[in-house]
Design brief:
Number of strands of chain A: 10
Number of domains of chain A: 2
Shape of chain A: globular
Number of helices of chain A: 6
Distance between the termini of chain A: 41 Å
Order of helices and strands of chain A: EEEEHEEHEHHEHHEE
Helix content of chain A: 25-40%
CATH topology of the largest domain in chain A: Nucleoside Triphosphate Pyrophosphohydrolase
Strand content of chain A: 25-35%
Radius of gyration of chain A: 18 Å
Largest interface: A-B, 23 and 23 residues
Mean pLDDT of chain A: 94
CATH class of the largest domain in chain A: Alpha Beta
Oligomer: homodimer
Largest sheet of chain A: 7 strands, mixed
Chain lengths: ~210, ~210
DNA sequence: ACAAAAGTGTTAACTTTACACCCATGT
DNA sequence: ACATGGGTGTAAAGTTAACACTTTTGT
């Protein structure tokens, strides 16, 4: 039986929650957009398959991945039986902007509430990934694993707002997040485009696993 | 590639959280205990595979299953490459007691903090299932799906205590659970072994997805 | 000096915790 | 009538939610 690893790579650019999709160049689903992914070889784990594919083909290395769900509907791929295992990753806005220098019309970041025509069952895969993310970011251990390091509080707040689907008060967010004892200042500040630059934070080495928001 | 579906079937009997394991009768891991499970056929989904196996081989039908994790380490099965997808289910104490009539020395409920020698990577699978359950029971929608219907409040409280690993105050548990607006009285009472019989509840048809405990 | 975004403190509403007695049933 | 476990209320502590002004930077 064939097994594929699929990955939902999210980011927030400009306060918008986005996902990276690839345009399919061959039938079936030619011209549709699909999740990055690859077949799993006999000598590789799922995690290796995803890491190799994303770093080699998408130029995003050292991302962290969290497993999401395994899809096994008989006809999810019309050509042959393929079982798909989906992963979630979050990438830093700054790396996205860098990477966008290499323009490729078959690779694009889409806002999650404005997706293009999606091929296979990948719309379902994406929707479940967003649902899962909603839960994952509420566990401090999963948040630390998945969220790129050296972030500002406004950055991580925007992520919460987009994923949870509602706004949060800046003062209350700060208070709660700092009180949770997960992060420490790096001493640096983010290169602000305008306005006062925000302090950069990183997760502490050892954190307690607790629920947030 | 070979894919197997594995299932962690939990119950609480006599206030103890237990898991159903089978004794392996052939090498490798002869005499070790393993999770129930079966290879996935070309014509079946993972969910069908588990449902069929559990109802036919274990005599427990109409259980609900939640997917947990997919294990793909190259050598997790020494004989051949097998990718394993694990599921979680919870079964009602009353059905467990009924089923125990059919004694089978190769099938046993073990307390989760007193497990026997476990074959393959199933100890890891079980430990992750317990961790996952800790999160799942905190989402009302997952709780409703997974928890057998017509329960008493002391029953569901004991489950929380075992899964979360600490005791909860009876009065506060009740207040919070009832306030969450998830359940309604059935009008019946549980056949108590001793003491005042507890009221039976069921989940409402429509519940809001919220976090508990 | 102005525009833009970051950072901060206080109070009221709500939620959680801690705690002790009465109730319904079987023996 | 007693033993066993189920069911209930209240007050103090802690948490969350609502709210407006000052600070730092670039232009």
């Amino acid at each position: 039986m064939n097994i594929e690893a699929l990955v939902n790579i999210f980011t927030i650019v400009d306060g918008k929650f986005k996902i990276l999709l690839l345009r399919k160049k061959t039938e079936p689903y030619k011209g549709y957009w699909i999740l990055p992914g690859n077949m799993v070889g006999k000598e590789n784990t799922l995690e290796e398959t995803i890491e190799d594919f994303v770093s080699e083909k998408l130029g995003l290395s050292n991302l962290e991945y969290e497993q999401c769900h395994t899809f096994s509907a008989i006809d999810r791929n019309p050509s042959k039986r393929v079982i798909g295992v989906s992963f979630i990753s979050i990438v830093d806005e700054r790396r996205v902007l860098l990477q966008q220098a290499t323009t490729d019309e078959n690779r694009e970041w889409f806002e999650i509430d404005n997706l293009p025509k999606i091929g296979y069952d990948h719309l379902e895969v994406i929707q479940l990934a967003i649902e899962t993310l909603k839960m994952k970011i509420r566990r401090s251990s999963a948040l630390k694993k998945i969220f790129p390091s050296d972030f500002t509080l406004p950055e991580i707040q925007k992520m919460y707002e987009q994923v949870l689907g509602h706004d949060l008060d800046r003062r209350n967010f700060r208070k709660k997040f700092v009180k949770a004892d997960l992060i420490e200042e790096t001493g640096d500040r983010a290169p602000g485009m305008t306005g006062r630059p925000a302090k950069l934070y990183q997760f502490k080495e050892e954190i307690e696993d607790k629920l947030l928001f």
